[in-house]
Amino acid sequence: MTTPSIDAHVRLGTHPSHRSAVVATVSGTARHIAHAHLSVRGFESVDEHTLVMVRIDHEEPYWAERAAQALTAEGISTEIAPGLREAIDEEWTWADYPMPWCTRQEIRESSDEAQKIYDDIRHGRLVIHAHADDSGTVVAVGSYRDGSSVALHGENHLRTITETFGSPAEALADFERLHGDTMRPGPAPMTDVERQAAEARSTLHSPSPLEPDPATQRTEMVPAYAADPADHNAALDEFVTEHDDWEKWRTWSDGTTHLIHESQTLRAELVHETNPRETAWTFAAYETPVSDRMWHLTLTGTTPAPLLKTLLSRLAEGDAWETAIGSPTTEKTVTEATRPLTDAGWKHTIEGRWIRWETTPGDAGVQFDAFAAQNPSALPTWTLWAGPSIDRPTWALHASPYTPAPLLASLTEDLAHGTGTRMKPAAPHRPARLKTTPTGLPQATNPHAASRSL
């Protein structure tokens, strides 16, 4: 028997700012039916046309696909956007999951139970009476409004019910006996994952009136080092799409993505949602897949788009990443790496162990640490930066001693001669105002005076 068609259409796509969340857009005269179906499958309403699914286990793509299958079976046409389809098909790694022997489906089932507990707490169905620290793990005790009391262990996708009690008094007494030393009233503070989930739900609402109007902004050309920060997530996705010899892997927490070359000797790591001035990218090269790291390079989240583009381009070429293992940085290496700065007339100074090249205004520079070059340590040998000073940079790039000179030269070429774009608020538009002669005053008879009164 053919399922009757319903005049409702659902489009499922990725959230604009939360990597794993899914947004559903409904249309049609019977969209309320699709809205109801989505609501019982983990989506929450934003408005009559929009719903969002945000989970603490980052399994939204899987559950969105299940919802799409159910909607189709009910006669509701459903579309899955390409970006979401890619997320559905993407393989996960479970490196930091505490039970590595579990299959992906078993992990998914376990985390779904944790999701239900989280939803019960968030919607007030489960009231948390107290929490405590149990050797570094958060534990809690609470009661369901319609029945039993429970003891909880863990947070986020690892939260489980460890014991059930007949009454709140019984549950609290047992909890105090076990965790009286660290017991605190009420629920534990929100975790980073819970906070990000809350932000993902709230950011789909109408923009704040304090947000800048795009119409009042304009783009200007600036030196590459002063350009707007790169969209790191978009750059990573574009790189993987264009280079099939690289593979992308996410960690369980969804906070980090790894890029690995098919040779296993070139690797990159992007940490999502970092503080803008903290390390976002780490690039590294190895002699063999199991050898020690030959060299590495890091850059902060505010690194301009032109420099990240250059870095990824050289990463794809491969030859710029080769280096002689164990060969110390020489004067020739330094000269080759900084020739673009010299050619551009950047100010060159030597202060003890540090050799620097800076712009005349001092708003960007490159520093070479001769001590770190000969004595590899936690200190970077190379620092590229822009901002008020090297100690308070807007962005910074750090490289270890054996970073290839051709790669550094490509980056310093960008600093010296490259350009990029930057959004700058435009001057506010002030409409012309018509000046009128106050009532009761004589009208000007001089035609020039009359024209000046406008």
Outline the secondary-structure elements.
Elements: E1 9-14, E2 22-27, H1 31-39, E3 44-47, E4 50-53, H2 60-73, E5 77-80, H3 82-89, H4 104-122, E6 126-134, E7 137-144, E8 149-153, E9 160-165, H5 168-179, E10 184-185, H6 192-202, E11 217-223, H7 232-242, E12 246-250, E13 256-261, E14 266-271, E15 279-286, E16 293-300, H8 305-317, H9 331-343, E17 347-351, E18 354-358, E19 364-369, H10 370-374, E20 382-386, E21 395-399, H11 405-417, E22 419-425, H12 447-452
Parallel strand pairs: 1-5
Antiparallel strand pairs: 1-2, 2-4, 3-4, 6-7, 6-10, 7-8, 8-9, 11-22, 12-13, 13-14, 14-15, 15-16, 16-21, 17-18, 18-19, 19-20, 20-21
Helix pairs in contact: 8-11, 9-11
What does the oligomeric state look like here? single chain
Strand content: 25-35%
- Mean pLDDT over the residues: 82
Integer count of domains? 3
Q: Residue ranges: pLDDT <50 for 5 or more in a row?
A: 206-216, 426-454
| Overall strand count | 22
Structural class: alpha+beta
* Biggest sheet: strand arrangement: 12-13-14-15-16-21-20-19-18-17
Domain DUF317: 262-320, 362-420
Organism: Streptomyces cathayae
Biased composition (Polar residues): 436-454
Protein name: DUF317 domain-containing protein
